[in-house]
């Protein structure tokens, strides 16, 4: 028995018609009650100028969803025909979704041509190139923002608490791209002043010159000592970054912003590439019965959602009450129009 069922489901000629019937039933059920208020038919014979012996019951009509009224085509006393549109909500979104569902269904049924596949491949390549370019550009922006942060007004400060001092001047552009500190130690040999740099750079010996700025190893920074080097301060510290600098906060915020922008733009570019790949795979693969059934069901649901934006006359009749206007909000299942239907002979 299981083998027979499996063999039956594997036959596209049998599965597709069944799937189409199921989708059609879904669409009919969605559409069936469009435009009717939940209380159904209410008998009445109080309408002016209406012969109750020639007319049927009073029907309250409503939108099955909440929305802003876009148009009302009738007023009390109007004679309407069955199927006539009496009012509608703003249906732009529903119409767009319906058009997409129709296009997807038709594309699946028709299949993709060689030209379509080539176009899809080109879109994948374009999306990949864009992702690479965006990633490279954003990495550079983050790198520059981080460099600015590390170079926030660098200065040398004594490693001991001192009230009055003249600090060496720090210049150049720090290029090691890592945080920490550089320690500058001054020594005096035979009347000559020298400095030794250590910390987050390779150890370096230099001349403590008060006239010309000297490089601080491979850090990209330079140091120029004052003409009268304080003999009571032999060690100086350069903090990287300098969190006490006046421009530190602005540089930090710029760096965080660069990180967030990179994350957002790269995600968008990656999503576009994923979508292009999915589109290509869809065009290359043949339509499976379950795909056809899904597309058919989606189309039926989209048609039902579109029709839910309209109120149709359920039969010939006369409009009694219109209690909604253009621009007003219609509440789901709340009566907006009442009409007397003509009795079927």
Q: Helix content range of the residues, please? A: 40-55%
Name of the CATH homologous superfamily of one domain: RNA polymerase II/Efflux pump adaptor protein, barrel-sandwich hybrid domain
| Mean pLDDT figure | 82
- What is the CATH class designation of one domain? Mainly Beta
- What's the tally of helices? 6
Quote the CATH topology of one domain.
OB fold (Dihydrolipoamide Acetyltransferase, E2P)
Q: Cα-atom Rg, whole angstroms? A: 39 Å
What does this structure look like?
By secondary structure, this protein is an alpha+beta fold. Among the domains are: 1-32 and 91-111 and 297-308, no CATH class; 36-89 and 311-345, RNA polymerase II/Efflux pump adaptor protein, barrel-sandwich hybrid domain (OB fold (Dihydrolipoamide Acetyltransferase, E2P)), CATH 2.40.50.100; 154-240. The chain is built from six helices and 17 strands. It has helices at residues 2-9, 12-32, 92-110, 114-150, 248-284, 289-307; strands at residues 41-42, 55-62, 67-72, 79-80, 85-89, 156-158, 169-172, 180-189, 192-199, 204-207, 214-215, 221-224, 235-240, 310-312, 317-322, 329-330, 335-342. The strands form four sheets. The chain has a five-stranded antiparallel β-sheet with strand order 1-2-17-15-4, with no helix packed on it. A five-stranded antiparallel β-sheet has the order 6-13-8-9-10, with no helix packed on it. Strands 14-5-3-16 form a four-stranded antiparallel β-sheet, with no helix packed on it. A hairpin with a 5-residue loop joins strand 11 (214-215) and strand 12. Helix 3 packs antiparallel against helix 6 (289-307) and helix 4 (114-150) packs antiparallel against helix 5.
């Amino acid at each position: 028995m299981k083998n027979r069922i499996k063999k039956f489901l594997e036959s596209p000629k049998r599965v597709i018609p069944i799937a189409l019937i199921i989708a059609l039933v879904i669409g009919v059920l969605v559409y069936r009650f469009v435009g009717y208020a939940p209380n159904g038919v209410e008998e009445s014979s109080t309408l002016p100028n209406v012969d109750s012996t020639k007319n049927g019951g009073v029907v309250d009509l409503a939108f099955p969803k909440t929305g802003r009224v876009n148009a009302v085509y009738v007023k009390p006393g109007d004679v309407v025909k069955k199927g006539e549109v009496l009012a509608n909500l703003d249906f732009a979104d529903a119409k767009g979704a319906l058009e997409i569902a129709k296009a997807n269904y038709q594309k699946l049924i028709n299949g993709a041509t060689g030209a379509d596949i080539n176009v899809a491949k080109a879109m994948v390549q374009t999306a990949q190139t864009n992702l690479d370019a965006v990633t490279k550009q954003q990495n550079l922006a983050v790198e520059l923002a981080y460099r600015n942060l590390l170079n926030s007004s660098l200065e040398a400060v004594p490693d001991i608490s001192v009230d009055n001092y003249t600090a060496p001047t720090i210049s150049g552009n720090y290029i090691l791209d890592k945080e920490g500190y550089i320690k500058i130690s001054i020594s005096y040999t035979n009347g000559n002043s020298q400095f030794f740099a250590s910390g987050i750079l390779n150890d370096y010996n230099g001349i403590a010159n008060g006239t010309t700025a000297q490089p601080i190893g491979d850090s990209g920074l330079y140091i120029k000592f004052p003409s009268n080097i304080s003999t009571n301060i032999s060690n100086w510290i350069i903090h990287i970054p300098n969190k006490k600098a006046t421009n530190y906060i602005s540089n930090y915020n710029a760096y965080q912003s660069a990180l967030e922008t990179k994350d957002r733009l790269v995600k968008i570019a990656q999503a576009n590439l994923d979508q292009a790949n999915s589109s290509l795979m869809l065009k290359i693969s043949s339509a499976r019965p379950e795909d056809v059934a899904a597309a058919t069901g989606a189309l039926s649901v989209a048609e039902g959602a579109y029709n839910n934006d309209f109120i149709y006359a359920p039969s010939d009749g006369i409009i009694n009450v219109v209690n909604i206007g253009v621009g007003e909000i219609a509440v789901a299942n709340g009566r907006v129009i009442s009409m007397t239907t003509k009795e079927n002979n």
